Fold each of these.
Amino acid sequence: MSATPTPEAVESREPLPPPSSPPAETTPPRRTSRFRPAQLIPFIPALVPAALIVAVIAELVVSTGFTNFGLSFWGPDWLPSPSVGTPTFGILVFITGSFLTAIPALLLAMAIGLGIAIASTSYLPRWITRFLDPFVDLLAGIPSIVYGIWGYLLVAPFFGTVINPVIYRYFSFVPGFGGKAPLAEGVGLPVAIFILTLMALPITTLLIRDSLRAVPRDLWEAGLGLGATRWETTRKVAIPYGLRGIVSAGFLGFGRAFGETVMVAMVLNVVPAFPINFYSGTSTMAAEMFTQLDSAHGNGQFLAALSEMALVLLAISLVVNIVGRRLVSHFAVYEVPGL
Amino acid sequence: MNALTSSGNGGPVLSAQHLTIQSKQKKILDDLSLDFPAASLTAVVGPSGCGKTTFIRSLNRMVELTPGLSIRGSVIYLGQDIYDPSVNPVMVRRRIGMVFQRPTVFPTTVFENAAFGLRLVHEDIETIEKSVEEALQRSGLWEEVKDDLDRPALSLSGGQQQRLCIARALAIKPRVLLLDEPTSALDPAATQRVEATMQRLKEDFVLVLVTHNVGQAARVSDKVAFLHSGHLIEVGPTADILERPREALTQQFITGRFQ
């Protein structure tokens, strides 16, 4: 500490002119004090993300035409072009639908991701994980339209003919699992949640795996050295240590599932109504905007309603993101002192 | 499993017999045999790369966590070979504790660190509290932390963290405590306190200390074993080895000719 010169000491070394030197106005100006436009260049790329967010929000706000739908905008009735009476634009069904698909998918993706990450970091031998890990990365690269086609042609019929009928037959006494029989086509909530889980899975798995891999080897050995099994060491040392990364995985996975559009529109059996039971269709904000854009063409009020719905979707995504960041920064950063 | 929990009868508590450990490239330990009697502190000294860390890690099967090593020979703990296929390494590590080169406290409170091993065996909370206090007293940390056991363990100094690691290992009441260069990351004052702790502990435990510091071996150990290139060069009472070594290699090492 004492060896490092203090800032004052460094500064006082140069600007003091010797007593016989010429007067101050002839000393050359300090280099850093002159403004040069080139100094602004680094700001340009740095400002692009902020400018994009502002531009998107501004565009959405303008395209709403500042239409005030009043309280009914938050209500359950979505009647954009009724045969009688005035149109009503209530988006409660879609907000509900978005959460109803994203939350279960996120919980499943977190549970499965945690399982894969623990197996890969603590149990499987190195040569197996070296072979298997890249598949998780590949999964992240599959376009959502491919998931949609696959889901519609293959997964949905399987749910419609095998899984849903079995659940319906044996669990119809559970509230929400009885009532109207599931469709043979299989499209509906279970398929949408299942495929959303797969789509959120790469990001949760990768982030959880990285945060478990960041657990110092010393701490692992300390746990095992105290007579803990591998599972006990994972549970009591590695997971608490990696908690920050695991929580971020949850928030990013939620973002992935919450905004997904095409795949959901293809397999959810999109209807603008609350689900009547486990097997039925409903709609999400993203899927509804996607499927209704064509009908809204030329209808200013309808387009305004879709734009406002887009703002709500954006707002929820941003709030979840910001709350997530704040929450994550509340967990202490655990570091083994470097000594 | 009974042999692991019964008490000894005069012979060495722990004994390495014809231990040979090999990686793909080279022999790390070559036919090494060494006894550790009760109530003693044995210092294993030698230059870097002599195999002393691999040796101490083989005494509670921690060495198996390093992939690609083949282990031959045996380590007898109270009459039982800990490498016998019927022996569970988890049980071995509960009887033969270990403290590492760098403090490895868990990111939780002081109390939970000390209680880690006790919680694994599902002791009731009164027993845990009693054992934690006892272990912290033995490790010489109790007076410094007793007023705030719920503070984060990472807020302790390096030396305090290392004594917490010793307490954590002692809390599950092992017979043997392996110390792998426990002061190599500590300043002289903290080193002195850890050495004082070791001297108190050797009354009740079998201590095995790996160190590259001849001065430390002289200060705390009863017996010194000198390792070089995976071979046990000589072993004997501390004063004999450090003052009148029989082997030229030992002489060179203790006079600081290679490190």
Note: Residues 2-254 of chain B form a domain with the Rossmann fold fold (CATH 3.40.50.300).
Amino acid sequence: MNGRATGISRARRFTDHIATAVAVGRTALVLVPLLLVLGYMLGKGATSLNAAFFLHSPLPPGETGGGMAPAIGGSVLLLIVASAMGVPLGLGAGIYLAEHGRGTRTAHAVRFTADVLNGIPSIVIGIVLYLVLVLRQHHFSAFAGSVALAMIMVPIITRTTEEMLLTVPDALRDAALGLGIPPWRTVLAIVLRTAAPGIVTGCMLAFARIAGETAPLLFTAFGNQFGSADPREPVAALPLQIFTYALSPYDDWHRQAWAGALVLLLLIAASVTTMRLFSGRGLRGFGADGPS
Amino acid sequence: MPSLDLTPGSAAAPSPRSPIPFVRSSRWADLAFSAAIRTCAFSLFAIVLLLVAVLFANASLSLHSFGWSFLSRSSWDPVARSFGSLPFLFGTLLSSLLALLIAVPVSLGVAVFVLDICPAPFRTFVAYLTELLAAIPSIVYGLWGLFVLVPLMRRFAGPALVRAFGWTDLFREPNFGMSLLTASFILAIMIVPIIASVSRDLMRAVPGDQREAVLALGATRWEALRLGVLRNARLGILGTVLLGLGRALGETMAVTMVIGNHPEISANLLAPSYTLASVLANEFAEAIGHLYLSSLVEIGLILLLISVLVNGLARALVWAATRRGDGLQRRAS
Amino acid sequence: MVPSVPEPGSTPDTQAPDIQVERLNAWYGSAHTLRDVTLHIPARQATALIGPSGCGKSTFVRCLNRMHETGAGTRVEGSVRLGGLDIYAAAQAADIRRRVGMVFQRPNPFPTMSVYDNVASGLRLNGVRRKRLLDEVVEHSLRQAALWDEVKDSLRTRSGANLSLGQQQRLCIARALAVEPEVLLLDEPASALDPISTSKIEDLIYELKTRYTIVLVTHNMQQAARVAERTGFFLDGALVEFDETKRIFTNPRDRLTEDYITGRFG
């Protein structure tokens, strides 16, 4: 931009520079602390993580050593059961939004509901499952925790699935329908298949998110010092264990809490990274980018 | 490959084979699929209805006992069976609003920077970083808050604030580090990525010609941004701010770990406080007695209604700002 | 019902049917894009549809295999008889679309599939599993589309999206031929292609019309003149004139047609 040639006044140019400087300054102001937070978490976690963390069970309070093996196992159990419920529901709802219901009022209502559900604090979902399942069965259970996590997953997967399906050009739907392929097969074998990489990473992101959810497990999975693979029993979970250990008075437990946090962070980082790789790639060059 | 008696290139050669054994299309497969998909979609309605219904049903005892006064009573005494949600409402709203106060200017600055000023490779990095930070679990932020932010507040920031602003009622001793202000800080850190990334998308959704039009009139970059982008994205940015508010209001673990968990209404920002979500996290599992439990459920209900309201409004605003006729977009020629 | 109606899946060589369209109206949302179109498309000939863009010719062909109804907010009235079978009254849309194949304006191969899988997709996803049959059909279709020699060495390794645009369009034609349709609808099949690819597609149409009933939408009048026996002129959703191609281009009855082909508008 050439100030002299365009005759922009010095004052206006000055304001422009100031505004630019303020934006750069603010960004630095934000990025630096955020990077520090991230760096601190990573550093603290890295120095705390060891093999025992993954392999051993917790020791009695106050003793040094032990690990979070049962908590990791519990989290895996919770995630598997939750996904078994949440993924199909979310996929189905996402397909509805992008295909059958596209542009309809009902679809708008469903999408709105998904967004609202996504905004409901997870602790509220935990309470409801406590009231509906735990209170009725008279004990905490991994199953109740999984249902809570599934409810958190559904809206996330719904929206990612929709978003990914909408990146599939209509030309491919036309091509398939034009071959006399029935609509349901068109959706599953052509549209869903084309969008599959994006949807899979979207699901991974949802896993990573619910893997760190703590609040809804407080009154459902509850925690368990010992390993359990029975969905009807209470189970330990990584975030619950981090919470308990963080609030304990023992240094070694604090160390393990940081190690647990690092595991969650790595999980998040991995899924966010793959998500970006896929969403950045798109469908360019397939000669099918919609009507001209 | 089976050999066919076809001379290469002779397109007109008829196929010598029997008809292809197609399966006749069945209406039922499509109907069944469509029904299944619909059921999945409607399950979202069912989940939200379930949440509301269960909370209402289980809060009925408290609703009957206290009525609207539940919102204005400030005592929380399980022994005397006297419950009111005012301290929690106060703590929730104040901590979230303070967090917004810190986070909004900062994140809008980031959004503008990423969109307009930042060199391209760095832009990808900032976008990646915000996405990553937005996905970090609450518990991890809580851990950091507990072991880093709380000591910082106790030793440095708190005393400094008291020295500088002690004459107001806002910053007074005693300062334990666990306080409403600490919670606001951590909430601010947590919502910056959300506000920044959504508002960046919004500003990007403003048609480029709006900006070019202003630039073409000889405006500077800042003027172009203010007139061409920010003004057009206003509504959406308000929505984004509400989205951040929604997240802050319901944030549980991180806040519970740093706010001090004490149900008291005080103008002192350095005093411990309590939020709707944290009282649930701390007391729900050990609530004894029907009225106690029911009161906690009512707190959950209040939290649900507030977040539905705030998020609903936020989504509506963001949509209004980005909507570009996503309905009938298939070809019409 | 006329007894000579061929069943789906029968060989197309001798039985490709004619199409009788009567008082066809179509809506797109509230836009009335097709008004009272009546015409007879003869069997085993190429029929060209010309007209300025937005005149309804694309909507018209999309009504011939019930593709129009896949859009949101669309509606069709009137009758389309495929050799006597009312396609809107009788069967499943999918069965009709298998008999009335379609090739679109822009090549749209399935990007996640190989060349082979692209051609076989219409059969596989309609429940045909026999490998020998699939192999046979894929080769036969690719030969018909004059693409076989160019892709035979990388049938299963090359992605459909990995071909040149002209090859992609011939792949789409092969894919459409693989389900053995009787009618082939070509919606401006060469508009996205270079002149050489275009002439290959035209040669192809010329050969295919001996065995298929072909409807060709085009904005290129020379193309219509080169390949089609009959030509229809659309304007504002109505069929203005329909006659032998020669007649349309040399001695049109209607003033509007004359204006259009002499380039006075459009």
Note: Residues 131-144 of chain C form the longest helix (14 residues).
